[in-house]
User: What shape does this take?
Amino acid sequence: MGDLTIGKAAQVAGVGVETIRFYERQGLIEQPSKGAGYRTYSPEVVARIRFIRQAQRIGFSLKETLELLALRAKPGADCAVLREQARHKIAEVDEKIAELLRVRAALEAVVASCPGRGGLEDCTILKALEDMPRGSAPCGCDEPMRKTR
Assistant: This one.
C-alpha cells in the first residue's frame, strides 16, 4: 500500500478525517507530505493512527498515548513500564466504577423517595437535591462524591 489521501487514510484507519487533523494538531502524528498538491499519509502513519485509536478505546488519554508512543519508539525499553501504566489505568477505571456506583445509589435513593405523582412543590427529588449538603449523597453512603482525575 502506498501513500493515501486523508480520506482514504481515515477509512483504512477507521477514524474520521477530522480525527486525523486533530491528531496532527496535537502532535500525535506528523504533518503529512504533499504529493501532487494534496496531503498524503504513509502506511506507517495509518498504523500509528490505529494504535492511537486502540489506546483510546481501552481508556488511555491522548497524553498517556503519546507517552506510550514515545516508549514504543525507545529501543531497549522495558515492558514492565508499560505494564505498570496499564495497572495504573486499571486502578483509575476501578475508581471511576466506584464513583458511578455511588452516583447510582444516590439516584436510586432519591427515586425511591419519590411518590411519582403530585405537584413539583412537593417533589421529594427536588427537596433532596436542595437539602443535600455540598459533596454528599442521599444514599446513606457517607463517602463524599469526588471527582477523579
Observations:
- Confidence is low (pLDDT under 50) at residues 144-149.
- DSSP finds six helices and three strands in the chain.
- The longest strand covers residues 38-41.
